[in-house]
Amino acid sequence: MPDTTPRGLTRLAFGGDYNPEQWPEDVWREDVRLMREAGVSMVSVGIFSWALLEPAPGEYDFGWLDRVLDLLHEGGVRVDLGTPTVVPPVWFYRAHPEALPVREDGTRYEFGSRGAICHSNADYRAAAANITTRLAERYGDHPALAMWHVHNEYGVPVSACYCDSCAAHFRRWLATAYGTVDAVNEAWGTAFWGQRYTDLEQINPPRVTPTVGNPGQALDYRRFADATARENFRMERDILHRLSPGVPVTTNFMTALSQCDSLDYWAWGREVDLVTNDHYLITDGRRTHVNLAMAADLTRSVAGGAPWLLLEHSPSGVNWQPRNPAKAPGQMARNSLAHVARGSEGAMFFQWRQSRRGAEKFHSAMVPHGGTGTRVWREVVELGGSLDALNEIRGTRTVADVAVLWDWQSWWAQNLDWRPSEDHNARERADAFYEALYDRHLTVDFVHPEADLSACPLVVVPALYLMTEAAGRNVTRYVENGGTLVVSYFSGIVDEHDAVHDGAYPGPLRDALGLTVEEFSPLLQGERVRVTGPGGAEFDADVWTEFVVPHGAETVWTYADGLTAGRPAVTRHRLGEGTAWYVSTRLGQAGLDALLGRAAEDAGIAPRDGLPRDVEVVRRTGESGTFLFAINHTATDAKVPLEAPGTELLTGERAAGRLALPAGAVRVVRLDG
User: Fold this and answer.
1) Of 269, 273, 400, 477, which is most buried with the most CB atoms under 10 A?
2) 536 and 470, same domain (yes or no)
3) Of 21, 37, 98, 153, which residue is the catalytic one?
């Protein structure tokens, strides 16, 4: 079996995407010298180099890559070696134009960017297998090789192709998934609008139609596109396992970016030897460090709680947002160590040396356009020099407090057309609930709805429109056995085929919640309602209300106005040994905090008193000990209570009682005992 850690890497991973092909060869030795100065331990090489490695069909030039890998090995830098299958050469597309993907409207993309691939195309598959084989045969036992990096960011920017090859492949996929055309008709509800098929050969991808198409078909096509890309990953992975045994194989995920939701990472996490992730701050005015924490928690969860690796983030600003601010002094190190706190075995960047040409020339890099006299370079060297002090955390695991149910397939279904309100955004609710948990200083594990929940004192369901009967039984059993559950509105509505569950809403959640929902009553844009509770508590809400009918649940908060005035807004239900909460409207952060505070009390989770807002405290633990990460995202010095004395690893100082945490700083304490 391949290892799950990069081969030969004895330190935390630190480095980035290295693209020497963009630079004259006399720069390469200077690069390696600077890597040693910066403390770089690993770089990613060759991800976009197919056109250089195979400049013409069947003609190969590996000499330049030989020299690069040898130089890196001499410099003590390990290599994450890419298979360059994300961008086939232009000669390939000229010979096989049908390998370029087709949009829903029939438009075929042209060569000139990246990721323009029809994953059903047999010629692409053969060419990708060939170049992967050639690389594995040549470099499978190279002394610099630490791991293999297949493709790049699957699903970005093209998540699906709608060409005739995909149509034929989709029919084969349906035959495997359903067996008969009658089973497809039943799953998709094709009796509606006379869409019934009499033969699988009649079925095409969900291309542009005069109005909304069949949602079951659209949902299955998302599954098909995801599975097809995963087939191609497995093809390359299996070649590498066979020809380069013992070397881990990965591909870089993008777990928490809402723009990159086309893959079911629960399934992908089972296919890679080591889970890796790319994360970039979305600078839209929100607290970017909260989304960073969410991404790290989600990636660790996809890895099953095991250590994972941050394979890309930015030293400073990016280039692809409408406005791309630089990171503040110290923010690069703070962001990097925040990922490490939540399970990453290092911090890698895109990229090593900033490009002078091409689409990403204004994306920051470890070596900026301004060279080694810049603030960014000085911070890179400082961060690289500090990481060795953290080596003993390698292999430890992050400790979580609560669980959030998360399902990419539910997002896919939720985002189809013609839902009760376009203002309800499932991802917004997930972000909002996560932020409320973050502000209570609780570390989150994300969990698939059908996974074992028995170890979780508190399970939160911020948005789970699609919920299988098995998931409903799982959640109900969890509550009966003593768990505490919090469910937000428009969850448990449809099954895996986007068919509404039989009976009243919320389908398989009715018993756990002790209620039914007679009717949704979404609010108009800008409309708000008030909800009131015990002790005169009052909170504003918007977007959504419901006509809730308790069947054993107690009303905790009530709608004070609107169509649902006087009816339950938030309920609490005792079932067996546990408790289930339901919130039927979109609460703001104050209301969510109050709700989660009550639920945490039910779950026996003590409040984390004494920690300021935007100071996060996360623990990693393992055979080497327990390590407390304290990260101050504010401009004010803070104090963090310690449950035991210990040694601060970055400074070497002893710490006890209350840890001094300067503004913008990170401290990592190995606790005694």
Assistant:
1) 400
2) yes
3) 153
Distances (CA, A) of 54 to 10, 110, 118, 165, 238: 33, 20, 20, 26, 21
Whether residue 351 is contained in a domain is answered as: yes
State the Cα–Cα distance between residues 207 and 189, nearest whole angstrom. 18
Whole-number pLDDT of residue 1: 56
- Is 132 a domain residue? no
Q: Give 283-327 pLDDT, tens digit per residue.
A: 887 799 999 999 999 999 999 999 999 999 999 999 999 999 999
Residue 353 lies in a domain: yes
Distances (CA, A) of 236 to 82, 87, 126, 244: 11, 15, 10, 12
Instruction: Please indicate, yes or no, whether residues 480 and 575 belong to a single structural domain of this protein.
Output: yes
Active site residue 546: no
Please write the tens of the pLDDT for every residue from 483-520: 999 999 999 999 999 999 999 999 999 999 999 999 99
The secondary element (H helix, E strand) that includes residue 600 is helix 589-602
> H/E element holding 622?
strand 615-622
Angle between helices 288-302 and 331-341 (to 10 degrees): 30
Determine which one of 236, 312, 345, 648 is catalytic. Answer: 312
CA atoms within 13 A on the CB side of 464: 31
Residue 342: domain span: 251-381
Contact 654, 648 (CB under 8 A): yes
622 and 595 in one domain?
A: no
Q: Is this model's pTM higher than 0.85 or not?
A: yes
Active site residue 153: yes
CB 90 within 8 A of CB 113: no
